[in-house]
Amino acid sequence: MAEHEILVQFSMVQKTYDGETLVVKHLDLDIRRGEFLTFLGPSGSGKTTTLMMLAGFEMPTYGDIMLRGRAINTMPPHKRNIGMVFQNYALFPHMTVEQNVAFPLAVRRVPKADAARQVRRALEMVRLAEYGRRRPAQLSGGQQQRVALARALVFDPEIVLMDEPLGALDKQLREHMQIEIKHLHEQLGLTVVYVTHDQSEALTMSDRVAVFNDGLIQQIDTPEVLYEQPRDSFVANFIGENNNLNGTVEAVEGDRCTVRLGDDTQVTALHVKPIGPGRPTTLSIRPERLFIGTAPEAAANRIRGTVVDTIYLGDHVRVGMHAAGNPDIMIKLPGKPETRPLPGDQLELSFRAEDCRALDPLWHPPAAA
To answer: Which of 126, 149, 248, 295 is positioned for an S-S bond with 299, CB 3.0–4.6 A?
Structure first.
């Protein structure tokens, strides 16, 4: 397989349902053969509409969708060689498991002997070979989801699309199915496009994640890059837990800037967004990158704050603080610290400039009187 071989291309794609409001505003996207790509974003961000356009259940208002270099805008779904797994499974209750899995083969007029062999193989993939004669109502939620997965895989599709497929499962089963789907992706060399609003699910399963908001992809990267190097405040706050420190840019020098926070403390941060001196910015810093007491030598930034609460969560203690004019600062202390801060304690926090990113502002200074 050629490295980063492009299987699907969205080129200047837009979608509107009413002729006025663009649900997908301007989408340029390459999907690589064999990758697990997740569309992540809040409700109404355009992620599911994008998936449905690729499946063929919606048509783009403008632009082209290419599969292996060929436009498929008007191609019906069953001719695209794309498997689909829905959140509600969409199984036929009056059919057996085998009949449900065989349905896509019947649509494609596959001979019965070949179909039986393919159904058996698909059920073995999802470890349901013994359940072929049962009906969906006789299965658990997790088993029904496996049947839906087998049905999507039975005709050897080039791409498998999954729309919130684990949304109806409880937390433990959901996490188990995440691992199963990821293993199937790796074993079969599938190209998977997955839709979710659950950021931990996206980080766990994906090779790349496209973060959607307001009909646009805000950033598309590996989970590690999205977490460590968010390009804007939306991505910083949608991916993982995050602290926002509001302030004003004082000076810019190379890739660093000096920022004055709400209590007049000055700190140094990475200058990610091109925001000039005198303009508002919001600093992004992860809770585990803030230190109380002993800190790395490079953690030269210092801010003071007051402890609001502490919560013990087993593998870490979460400390909530009011600091530098910002009321909702969170610190994660790993393990079981010898001394736990108490509400009302005055503490000094430290952090490295490399861990602090100056992004687009989530606030605006009050107008002068």
So the answer is: 295
* Distance separating alpha carbons of residues 222 and 38, to the nearest angstrom: 10
The runs of H, that is alpha helices, within 168-245 are 171-188, 199-205, 223-228, 233-238
pLDDT of 267 > 80? The answer is: yes
Query: Which residues make beta-bridge pairs with 283?
Result: 245, 358
The H or E element spanning position 113 is helix 112-125
Half-sphere exposure at residue 108, Cβ-oriented, CA atoms within 13 angstroms: 21
Phi, psi of 210 (to 5 degrees): -100, 115
Q: Please, how many CA atoms are within 13 Å of residue 7, restricted to the half-sphere of its CB?
A: 21
Query: How much is the pTM?
Result: 0.90
What is the pLDDT averaged over residues 6-16? 97
User: What pLDDT is attached to residue 3?
Assistant: 59
305 touches 341 (CB < 8 A): no
Please name the residue that has the structure tokens 């605006």: 364
3-17, 107-121, 167-181, range with the lowest pLDDT: 167-181
- In whole angstroms, what is the distance from residue 115 CA to residue 122 CA? 10
pLDDT for residue 71 is more than 80: yes
Which parts of the chain are beta strand (E)?
Answer: 6-16, 22-32, 36-40, 62-67, 70-71, 82-85, 159-163, 191-196, 208-213, 216-221, 243-253, 256-261, 266-271, 280-285, 291-292, 301-312, 316-323, 326-334, 346-351, 357-359
Nearest-angstrom CA–CA distance, 119 and 190: 18
Tokens representing residue 355 in the block: 């861990």
* Angle, vertex CA 75, rays to CA 42 and CA 50, nearest 5: 10
* Three-class SS state of 247: strand
